[in-house]
Amino acid sequence: MELLDQPLRTAEFVALDVETNGRVGEECELTEVGAVLVGGGELHERFQSLVAVRRPLPRGVQRLTGITQSMVECADPPARVLPRLAERLEGRVMVAHVARFDRGALAHAFAAEDLRWPDPPVLCTVALARRFAPLAGQRRLAALARALDIPVEQSHRALPDAETCARIFCALFGRLCAHAQTVRDAVELLGPRRRARRRRPPGRLPAGAPVPPDIDFAGLPDGPGVYVFRDGAGRPLYVGKSVRLRSRARSHFAPGSPRAGWTGHAAVVDHHATRSELAALVLESRLIKRLRPPGNVNLRRVDRWVYIRCRLDIPFPILEVAPRPAAGLAVCVGPLRGRAAAAELVEQLNSLFGLRHCGRRLQRRDHPSAYGQMGRCLSPCLGDLDPNLYRRRLDAALALFAGDDDARGRLLEHVETRMSAAAAELKFERAAALRRRHKRLAVLLERLEGVLRAAHAAPRLVLAPGAARTAGFDAFWLVGGRVADWGPAPGELELERRTSLALASRPPPGAPGSIHPDEVDEARIVATWLASHPEVPCLALDPPPPPDVIAAFVAAPGSAPLGTIHGAEGHADLRIR
């Protein structure tokens, strides 16, 4: 009788678990196998063996499993372990927790040693618990066992995990037998669930659509710009950009090129020519946000960024990390990628300068908080602190974001000075703590280098040169961390007017702001392009230069006048990582 047709109650099962080196693909190797024979609802003979590996074990895997490099160096090679395991799987049903992983790792190991994989029927205890123990909150092996009142003495070793898996299987075996008569029935019952067919959202195009009729590409220029494919009704399907519009638009329908779903519906293509590649990048981002074509996915999303901000309209202001910039009287730094690094920097600055660690609302206390007792907070909550002293400390912390290139060095020097003073006073524990703080601050400042500037710092005028076959420049007014205005470089009078309008969009002094999250993509695009083109000329607009200086800069951008900033250093606050 074929194993799949054997009655489930009389079949024999092998609960199995493997440990690996934590790598994937061809680099995945077994480090240990464990198996338990299960029959009649009871556990019988056991098998366990370490497996030698060719590559060194990562330290994280060694800490997690307790299997050290010396243990696997003395173990049997896979060519000796796997045949013994295969003997135990012959004619039996394999049971495993997250069986897809164990089966895949074993099949790969057998293939690597040129051995025949027994390919037994497989039952997964995760699928078993999902079907017959739906109230179990978690389905990790140890958590599921505890939910079924099964004791767990050891985890992340092959034989103990295999025994736990076997006990879970035995606990639910009766319910499985009530719904499946044969092994085949059980495999089908616990097999991959068929997902319900989802309705296509509005605007989503079906894949595999027929190739559209011939599209007239003759009207597209062979220079930089943005193209928009539309269907017969004029609805936008896809927005793209290129420095050679005609060639790039044709490539979507070239023989052998992968076809997206929208290509079968394209009927016409229009375009917007630009002078520079940067202008094409910015225009593409704006059109995708406005038209929301179904063929574009990435730039329609607004990424989750954070801001370091300080509201100056509350008593004893605090530094905080928030998903949006603060309105009103505030200093906002960002957007920054990575909440963890931003929050750690705020915590370091708070402790270093004695700023408040609590929320915006200041609660009066009779005794200092834990931070105050450790000397890491000036404790304004006690009601006897001079506000001017706190403001001086706050200004020292905010100096890091004021656009001063030497602020980072001064901050680290400040920590070094305090460290030397603590050592001179024989406070060696305090000195050691400051040394650790100095080291961590250096790492954080290096990681966030280029973005630790308030968004209002260093407005500038950038000239993006025309791409190949295109003369002239595109002018970009970068004010308040955003693109305030842009377009082909205008004449002298228009240049002066647009510069004044761009600078007028800045928040008033004392009330700096930051860019809106919807503009993050555009800021990142500009920052990335500028970082890869350090030779692009930039003219500092703070303080506003005279009109003749601006005119001379645009007329001859190759020769920089006074006040001009060259290279990526001039636009560091836009370099978003």
Structure commentary:
The chain has 577 residues and is of the alpha+beta class. It has 4 domains: 3-189, Nucleotidyltransferase, domain 5; 225-297, GIY-YIG endonuclease (3-Layer(aba) Sandwich), CATH 3.40.1440; 306-402 and 404-447, no CATH class; 460-574, no CATH class. The chain has 18 helices and 16 strands. The longest helix has 22 residues, at 158-179.
Features:
single chain; 577 residues; alpha+beta; Nucleotidyltransferase, domain 5; GIY-YIG endonuclease; 4 domains; five-stranded mixed beta sheet; five-stranded antiparallel beta sheet; 18 helices; 17% strand; extended
CATH class of the largest domain: Alpha Beta
What is the third-level CATH name, the topology of the largest domain?
Nucleotidyltransferase, domain 5
The DSSP helix count reads 18
Q: Please indicate the percent range of residues in DSSP E strands (runs of 2 or more).
A: 15-25%
**What's the overall geometry?**
extended
Which CATH architecture of the largest domain is right?
A: 2-Layer Sandwich
The number of distinct β-strands equals 16
Report the structural category: alpha+beta
Helix content: 25-40%
* Low-pLDDT segments, ≥5 res: 207-211, 559-577
Task: Output the CATH homologous superfamily of the largest domain.
Answer: Ribonuclease H-like superfamily/Ribonuclease H
Compute the number of structural domains: 4
